[in-house]
Amino acid sequence: MLFLKCLFGAGCWNVDGRGPSIWDTFCHTKGRVFEDQTGDVACNSYQLWEEDLKCIQQLGLNHYRLSLSWSRLLPDGTTNHVNPKGVTYYNKVINDLIANSVMPMVTLNHFDLPQALENRGGWKSPEIADVFDLYARFCFKTFGDRVKLWITVNEPYVCAKHGYEDGLHAPGLREPGTSVYLVGHNMLRAHAKAWHSYDTHFRHLQGGKVSIALNSDWAEPLDPSSREDIAATERYMDFILGWFACPVFSTGDYPESMKRRIKARNLELGLSEGPRLPKFSEDEPNPLGTADFFALNYYTSRKVKDTSSHPSELSFKGDQGAEGVMDPSWPVCGVSWLAVVPEGLRKLLNYIKETYKNPDIYITENGFSQIGPVELEDVGRCQFYQDTLQEVSKGLTISMNITKAAFIAHLSVAVSAIRDDGVSVWGYFAWTLLDNFEWTEGFRVRFGLFHVDFSRPELKRTIYRSGREYAAVISRHRTHINLEKT
After folding, report:
1. Residues 6 or more apart from 395 whose CB is under 8 A from it?
2. Stretch 175-198: mean pLDDT
3. Which site among 53, 72, 227, 375 is 20 to 30 Å from 193 CA-CA?
4. Residue 31 burial by CB count (10 A; 0-12/13-18/19+): exposed, middle or buried?
5. Cβ-Cβ contacts under 8 Å for 38 (sequence gap 6 or more)
6. Nearest Cα to Cα of residue 433 among 471, 472, 386
7. What local confidence, expressed as pLDDT, does residue 307 receive?
8. For residues 434 and 443, what is the distance between their CA atoms, to the nearest angstrom?
9. Cα(424)–Cα(416) distance, rounded to whole angstroms?
């Protein structure tokens, strides 16, 4: 399985009736993105889809995750104005995938809220949940006869924290300790409404599944003997993963540690304007049970130390009272935050199994980045990880992708979690098919199985050695499957 985000992979930001998104506005503001790069063209998958399809065929995929551009389908974000050219484009992508025996997993919203909706309050507005529900219904009705795996919202934590707390992502707001919780709440409301709409109106006809993609580090106490660090680690996990997983998979409400900590901080800071962490209304669909599988995005791990006693101003970080740091023994790939910790994935899978009632899990993102000179022949990393491929068991139905050498290690860990730990992992999507526009990092960071030459207008795709080895793994696996069938 493989994932390509089609938001900025598609490019053509103002072509064929597409409306602007908050990321278009953000990128066009000086100083927001590395070297003021934009996703205006990016991989140009909107016009070069046939080239992308050749890459998919070359790898031998049987699943592919893509994101719809909300504003390409509905330029003002509402169903009052449907863009037929956007519908035609996505129909072609979906039909081409199915014609090549590739099952699409489709994400409705990957950070790219239509700018027209942001102008009306965006994710901070209580009305956004109903607007999103109508968008989701439109997509279910338009594409659901062929799409059987849906993601409503990708990484609500990242969107809320980086977009509304830190101002690092679109829409670039810095409103510490307040909007982050409101945005996260409205995303959960939107997801729950969309899931219930699918369950009521579409499931019996289409037979698909719907979830929400949650990102999380794996976290362990910096000092395992410190009660403070142990408690801080619990808060760290609750404020990242539990914030969204508890309402959907466990209790229908936010984690107790999160509620206690924010309430205590309100008293500490003398705040009396009401709770900053919103409450779920009994008049709306409850989020509990609104996921047909657990969609997990995992990249890295952290060691956590307690900071709850440190004086701080109103902020999400102050509420969390925990700081994640990297173990100096962990190798770092490309970007400074991405420590390569494959064993963290296995531990996180087990944590989800034990904490959230052993759900079926799709690993919907996992990747290894490069910066600096392009190395098509990434021999060192491939050699370093090649022995771990032997851990892949015959009993695992592998449509999982390995984009870089690190994926081999991560895949081995996922297999161990399935075989030895009894974790119900159904699939692994690697980030990503093509080198791409990587948000505030622009084009300087590369995650792809295929290199894209952004210096040339042809945007030529060239497979990395890691991609060739991945294709060989898929080929060998298919041979095993065919032999078992005969």
Report:
1. 419
2. 98
3. 72
4. exposed
5. 13, 24, 27, 28, 437
6. 471
7. 96
8. 11
9. 11
Confidence of residue 480 (pLDDT cuts 50, 70, 90): low
Work out the average pLDDT over 432-439.
92
pLDDT in tens, 196-234: 999 999 999 999 999 999 999 999 999 999 999 999 999
Helix (H) or strand (E) holding 245: helix 243-245
DSSP 287-303: -TT--SSEEEE---EEE
CA nearest neighbour of 208 among 158, 152, 278? 152
Nearest to 303 by CA among 285, 282, 330, 278: 330
The mean predicted confidence, pLDDT, of the chain is 88
In 112-178, alpha helices (H): 115-118, 128-143, 156-160
Q: Write down the residue that tokens 């959960």 correspond to.
A: 188
Q: How far is CA 463 from CA 50, 108, 188, in A?
A: 16, 28, 38
What's the pLDDT tens digit per position in 4-53? 444 456 766 788 899 999 999 999 999 999 999 999 999 999 999 999 99
From CA 246, how far away is CA 251, in angstroms rounded? 6
Q: What is the 3-state secondary structure (H, E, C) of 62-78?
A: CEEEEECCHHHHCCCCC
Mean pLDDT of the region 113-127: 98
Structure tokens at 452: 């894209």
pLDDT value at residue 366: 83
At how many degrees (to 10) do helices 342-355 and 405-421 cross? Answer: 40
220 assigned to active site:
no
Query: Which of the following is catalytic: 220, 365, 438, 469?
Result: 365
Give the active site residue among 51, 118, 155, 438: 155
* Verdict on whether the full-model pTM lies above 0.85: yes
